[in-house]
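Bug #77: duplicate submission created two jobs. Keeping one. Sequence:
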Amino acid sequence: MSFFGFGSKVKALEAGAPAPLPVSLDQDGNAFAFADAYAKGVTLVFFYPKADTPGCTAQACSLRDSFESLKAENLQIVGVSRDTPASQKKFQQKYNLPFSLVADSDGKVAEAFGVGGVMGLPVSKRQSFLIKDGRVVWMSPSAKTGEHAVEVQAALDSLKS
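Kept job's structure:
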């Protein structure tokens, strides 16, 4: 068990690692296969501790507010937390989030990505991954909540050069 993320034995995936292919439930309770998202283009998978909390809301709304420009880059966006599908749906509707939210209630998606918990609680640490051509091409160990879209855009720009 870790405290404040220190001492965690979980190691997040790094650039170059094969992208995990978990299947979980989305905000509507439907099966969500990560392979299907990856097949549509570069995919941002962002983990957040809990739906509708201040930092997580700022992070998701940053991506929402830049959604059109990120979508123009052919970016797929997938949010993941340990919440239930019903909580994810409520969060999505409350903030008009135009992307899928995955309910990782059992923690298996976080485990596949090597995302640890926070203070030993059943919540995921805030981390983000860009997946391209079946591989992790970028990873942020601690996403900036209100500026997450800026961080993601910079990562996308670096992939072009």
